[in-house]
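Moderator note: this is an archived Q&A kept for reference. The question asked for a predicted structure of one protein chain; the sequence and the answer are reproduced below.
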Amino acid sequence: MLSTNCNTLSTCCANEKLQNSDEFCFAVFRQAIVFKQDACWTFIVTKYHLLVAGWVTLQMGKENNILGNTVGDLIQHTFLKFWQNYTAEKIDRATTLRSVLSYLKSCAATTVLEQRRRMQSRPKEDEFDTVDNVDKPFTKSTERNVEQYVFEVIQKQNLEEKLVSLCKNEQEIVLMQCSFLQMMSPRDIMKLYPDMFQDIKQIYSIKRALKSRIRHKFFN
C-alpha cells in the first residue's frame, strides 16, 4: 500500500510544473524521510540529481580538478548528508518544498566545503616518504585524535538540533546552518541563496537577531 502510494505521489510530483504546485513533491520527501520508503528516496535522487549537480559545480568553481573528488562523488555525498541529517522532526517544521530543497542545497555547499578543507589539511605526499614515516604505527596520540573527532561529531549533531530549534522561519534555519554551523561568510551565503535574502545587510540583521537569541538561551 505504501509503495503504491509512493508511486502515485511520484507520478503527481513529476507533473507538478503543469499544476503550478509543489504539494506532491513535498509529500514524496515526507514519505522518504518519515516512513523511510526506498521507492520515494530513489525518485528523489533521480529527480533532483541535476539540480544538486548544478549546486555542487557552482560551489566547486575552478577547483573541480583539485578537490580530489569527481562531481558524481560529491553529489552522492550531498544526498547522503541530507539523508543522515534531515530528520522527521525537521520536515515537520518545514512548510514548503522550497524549505526542504534549501536544506538539500546547504548540504551540497557543506559537502564541497568539507572536501576543500580535507584537501587543504591533508599532508603532502612527500611528508610520508621519509624513513621515519614508513609503516609508522598508530600512537596513543593518534587514538585520542580519533576519539576526539568522534566526540566532536556527536557534539555537533546535538548542537545543530538545539540551534535549529531557535529558528522561527526558513531564512533563519538556512542562516543558522550556513553561518553558525558551516562558518560561511555572508557574501558566500548571498551567492548561494540570492532568492532568499534581499541583500547582505539583511543577512547581517538576521544574524544579529540569532546571536542575541543564542546568548539568551545558552549564556544567561
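Archived answer notes: The chain has ten helices and no strands.
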